[in-house]
Please model this.
Amino acid sequence: MTVLDLFAGPGGWSQGARVLGLNEVGIEIDAAVCATRAAVGHATIRADVAAYPTKPLRGKVTGQIGSPPCQTFSAAGLRAGNTDLPLCHQALDDLARGNDTRTALREACTDPRSLLVVEPLRYALDLRPEWIALEEVPAVLPLFEHTARLLAHVGYSTWTGVLNTADFGLAQTRRRAFLMASRTRPALPPQPTHADGGTPADLFGDGLPPWRTMLDVLGCPPGIVHTRGNHTSGGSRFSTTGPSWAVTGRARSWLLKVGSRPSASRRRLDQPAPTLLFGHRLNDVSWIDVDGSPVRRLDVTEAAVLQGFPAHYPWAGSRTKQFEQIGNAVPPPLATAVLGSLVPAALEVAA
Model:
């Protein structure tokens, strides 16, 4: 074992590690998620991260990855994690002092899952990997900053901050908090590969290309385009799965809507998608027409591609479970960028 992936999920970090030639083993408890990982060939220990012992892993882990479940902190959830923040901070301090109070603090939490965010520190202090990469929703940044301070006390260089997936070639403006730490080199964030609107060339380089759009990665979603909109006569009808020269007018004005409220995010096909939120909002992620009329729901393949996975990734489980896995995963291209920044020698393998 070289890289240990806590709360491994369907393979976002795993795909990123694979590109870099890193040998990764995940710990994951969900049966459907484990089935997805098995189908794509990612090694997995099916277990509860919070209950799994660290002793058998000592001396075997070079790098540690972690994306604790975010439901209690996510804007798409009930935000119980906000109430539990003081208990999470206390658990971090207690672990750093060698006092494991997780059981008592978990019982005191509004949602016991909130305390899972401290598990990466428990593993890190016991295993002392050379480097660490953690990802969560932005609301968890204060806990990552606290974790980083504690890691700095035991010899790690650290960086914490929020990265936007659109800056790294994803057609989605998904913002996530990251913690990066290293015992062997300065921990620095990856350099963006894209920028909003692009940047011009200068003396220091060629500049950055603009953010990628849903149209760039999806083409036009399947459907029928009428070049005269709602007019009853004239115009022509084309399938949007046909040649791009036949896709005109109305199809390019489709919007992706995320949410059911009047303030729900809406993005045109020629823009990146907003952050994809599934869970209980699954049926509220859909294509709408320029006048707001429903067209159809986003499908699994489209969601996977917008999250940076291959179109034919072998998702396991029910439709709801597949969307849940996609929405919770780290986008693989961003995982590659973060890991490449921590393990630069791996970039030679990718090249």
Q: What stands out?
A: The first strand starts at residue 3 and ends at 6.
